Amino acid sequence: MARPIPLELPPRDPREELRKRLEEAPVEHAEALLDSYELLQQLHDQGVFQLLRGVIGASDKLVETAVETARSGESVRAMRNAIILGKMLSLINPDILQGVAVAVCETLGSYHKPVIEPPGIFSLLGQFRHEELRRSMALINRFLETLGNQIKLQAGCK
Fold this sequence. Notes:
Layout: H1 14-28, H2 30-45, H3 48-57, H4 59-71, H5 73-91, H6 94-108, H7 121-127, H8 131-155
């Protein structure tokens, strides 16, 4: 009958394996280690480590200040307003917002103060012939009407 072949494996030493890997690491990763040392030196030269030590040392005071600030009425209103503005921006058609941005840039985007002489009465009436002016005025009128309705609702007026 066949006899089993004895298999004797030497005991595995995880510490010895780690030591070998650590000894080989500088050779395998020499360029990365040099870059890391250079980055660490730059962070040290710029005082980033001192700043981080200070932040960690004062973390309790920073947390207290942040919580006190977040509890203030102004912060709560600012957060609510930011949420509302985010919702509002998500509802605006990007093409319309792009048109507004272009109009603002072309009208007010000059480095110099625009010199716009007020038009005369007849010139102003003549501008109403332009379809673009009438279209934008209708948009502004719709906005003002909706805003007026919202103000009326908020005030509880009839």
